[in-house]
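Need tokens for this chain, all 88 residues.
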Amino acid sequence: MEASVSAAVNVSMLAMSVIFTVLIILIFTIKALVKLIPYEAPPAPPARKVSASSPPEQDDQVAAITASLAAHIGKRPDEFRIVNIQSR
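Here are the structure tokens for all 88 residues:
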């Protein structure tokens, strides 16, 4: 029984040493690559032109108001159109 326990310990130690050796090699490889090829941030995308019609939040609000008004009136939402919403 002692031979199998010592063999198991030897195999475990060998496996751990191989794993840590590979990890150390990976660490130094990554450090070398960082020094040789530094990170460059991608260029900023060009600024989008903002449309002056209506912001996306207002579109969501118009859709919600249209749906609730259609349910209240008893008509389909495509039978009428909300043109202007004023907040007070």
